[in-house]
Amino acid sequence: MRLPWVRRGWLKTSRRSSKRYQVRRWHLKKFFDNPPQHLKKRIASIDAEAINYLLGRKA
């Protein structure tokens, strides 16, 4: 099942199998760097360490 953000085209994925999708790191970075206006507060509430981990950044 794809996330609403993917269905709306805000976050790009690649199909890995019939039920699995993969989000590339650069697509995730682009999404976090420039989210849709109404999602900015939700994105800001995510722990910065979790975002850095997902993006492969060092602390």
Automatic annotation (TrEMBL):
What protein name is recorded for this chain? Transposase
Species for this entry: Nostoc flagelliforme FACHB-838
